[in-house]
Amino acid sequence: MKTLILTFLRTTFLGFTFLAMFKSKVVLAEPSVADLPVVSISDLSFSVKAPSGWKVRQNYRGKTLVLEDPMSSTFGDTVYNRNITVAVQSGPKPIDALEVERVTLKLKEDYAKSVSEFQIIESRIIDYRGKGDAILVFSSFRAGKVPMRQMHIYTSGSEHTVLLSFTDIEDSFEADGALNKAWTTMMSAEIAGEAPHRYDGLMYSGTGLALIVSAAFFSKQLRRRYQRDALRAEENALFTFDENEEDDDEFAMNIGAKTEVARTGPEDWQIAETRYAGQIA
To answer: From the centroid of its chain, how far is CA 177?
Structure first.
């Protein structure tokens, strides 16, 4: 009798153990990215695939979207629901080393207002939809006495930028595949268009400035040419002889051999040549 009871208890224990293991595997199994629900905001040309079973709130606590895990994490007496916040803002930004500095500085300024000991653990440019088109940042801080960890992804489209931030208690940050789940969701975000290049505006401005300078140069050259032509025309007018000049010479010859015409200074044409010689280019 005792043998039958022991056998029954052993079989029952193994059965429950198997069911528990099977159930845990089923719970941890994640649906494919294609099966995740899509959250779209048409006005911002933005969409993201939320983790299966997570709550989705729009325009909540100053964020465009808040995706929240219904399962809580605990640290002592503190209970926290890991979440992903989405902040979409107008105005595109280039993705480069200067933008990495700007984004990390902005994170420090924003979180320093509400938490303590905020610091950047790592920041770098990653491939998102294309080559080097997003910024990945890991950070940490304390909410009261609770140590927290974060993962941020920042990218830009042609009209908007988006910052996605995953936050959880430090001890639970990577537990139960939470980080992988957050990464899958954050990398699924879509925003219309491509990020601009930092020097595009300068290139267009430089082209416009070059056109203005060229126009001013050619205008100056035309004015100089006009002035030069005007001086040459005036000079030519001084050397143009009247048709009646031969009659004047005959009249001078008829005055008589004894009469001499006094010439006390240089001829008129010599004076004209001296007067304008230095003004003709």
So the answer is: 33
Identity of residue 100: V
Going through 50-97 in order, the beta strands assigned E by DSSP cover 55-60, 63-68, 73-75, 78-80, 83-90
The continuous run of DSSP H or E covering 16 comes out as: helix 2-28
Q: What is the pLDDT of residues 96-122, one digit of tens each?
A: 999 999 999 999 999 999 999 999 999
User: What type of residue sits at position 272?
Assistant: A
> What's the per-residue H, E or C state across 126-179?
ECCCCCCCEEEEEEEEEECCEEEEEEEEEEECCCEEEEEEEEEEHHHCCHHHHH
Return the SS3 of 118: strand
Torsion, Cα 261 264 267 272, to 10 degrees, reads -150
Residue pLDDT, tens place only, 26-63: 333 445 666 788 999 999 999 999 999 999 999 998 99
Cβ of 119: how many Cβ atoms within 10 Å? 10
C-alpha 101/C-alpha 113 separation (Å) is: 19
What the chain holds in terms of domains, given with CATH numbers, is 31-191 (3.40.1000.10), 200-279 (no CATH)
